[in-house]
Write a structure and sequence with these properties.
globular, seven-stranded parallel β-sheet, TIM Barrel, 38% helix
Length: 126
C-alpha cells in the first residue's frame, strides 16, 4: 500500500496548480495536483507532454479513465469512489495509482481492507 504524507514516510509534496505558469514553477519532485479534470485537462496534457508527474482529483469513473489515459501518476478520490474504481483499475491494468484522501491514521486500515492502492494525507497537499 502506498502511504503519502505521513510524518514517518518521506514522500513528495502535492502542489495544487491553477495555471501553466504554476506548473512550470513547480520544483523537481513535486507532484502537480489538478482538479477537477473537466477544468484542468489542458494542464494534464501539458504535464504529459513535458514529463511532469501529476495527480488528478476525480469523482467519477469516466474521469478516472481519462486521467489514466492522460498519464496521471495518481488519481485522488473519496473512499466510496475508490472502492468502485479500484477493481476496474486492476482489470484494465491502470498505470495510474488510486489514492484516497485521508486525515487520520485510523483510516489507513479501512482503505487497505478495501484493497485500494494507497492513501494521501491532507498534509501532503500544498
Amino acid at each position: 500500500m502506498i502511504i503519502i504524507g505521513h510524518p514517518w514516510i518521506k514522500s513528495n509534496r502535492f502542489l495544487k496548480v491553477f495555471s501553466i505558469k504554476c506548473i512550470e514553477e513547480s520544483q523537481p519532485g513535486d507532484i502537480v495536483l489538478l482538479e477537477p479534470l473537466v477544468d484542468s485537462h489542458n494542464y494534464a496534457i501539458h504535464c504529459q507532454n513535458n514529463n511532469i508527474p501529476f495527480a488528478v482529483v476525480v469523482s467519477t469513473l469516466t474521469d478516472a479513465l481519462f486521467a489514466n489515459a492522460l498519464g496521471a501518476k495518481y488519481i485522488i478520490c473519496e473512499e466510496d469512489d475508490a472502492l468502485m474504481i479500484q477493481p476496474l483499475a486492476n482489470e484494465y491494468l491502470f498505470d495510474t495509482r488510486l489514492l484516497v484522501l485521508i486525515h487520520t491514521e485510523k483510516e489507513i486500515c479501512k482503505i487497505a481492507r478495501g484493497k485500494v492502492d494507497g492513501v494521501l494525507f491532507a498534509e501532503a497537499i500544498c
